[in-house]
Amino acid sequence: MLLCMASNQQTRPGIGELAKDSTSGRIGVVVGEIGGRVQIRPIRGGREWDATPDTVVALSAREELSARLAVKNVNSQVGL
């Protein structure tokens, strides 16, 4: 899974970047925008969910580190 580094700007994360849905607290990768909704896929894979654009925020440094470690752990379990 390819993940882009989040920028230091306070803009909404773009496609391929890690993001947090502040309504649910879930973290994932932005995969698209359709019909005024942002689609986010869980970092460990699975079905994406829709979030409203105003609730999608960039991760804190701690959240990003934790998410990237989770991706590494999943990849090592499947031999990537």
SSE series? EEEEEH
Poorly predicted spans: none
Distance between the termini: 10 Å
Taking the sheet with the most strands, its summary is: 5 strands, antiparallel
Number of strands: 5
The chain-level structural class is: alpha+beta
**Helix fraction by DSSP (H/I, runs of at least 4):** 10-25%
Please give the count of helices: 1
Shape: globular
Mean pLDDT: 87
Strand content of the residues, in percent? Answer: 25-35%
Q: Give the strand order, joined by hyphens, for the main sheet.
A: 4-3-2-1-5
Characterize this entry briefly.
This protein has one helix at 61-77; strands at residues 18-21, 26-34, 37-42, 49-51, 56-57. With 80 residues, the chain is an alpha+beta fold.
Q: What features would you highlight for this structure?
A:
single chain, 80 residues, alpha+beta, 5 strands, 30% strand, globular
Describe the protein's architecture and organization:
This protein is α+β, with helices and mostly antiparallel strands. Helix content is 21%, strand content 30%. The protein has a 5-stranded antiparallel beta sheet, with no helix packed on it. The radius of gyration is 12 Å and the shape is globular. The termini are close together. The relative contact order is 0.22. The mean pLDDT is 87.
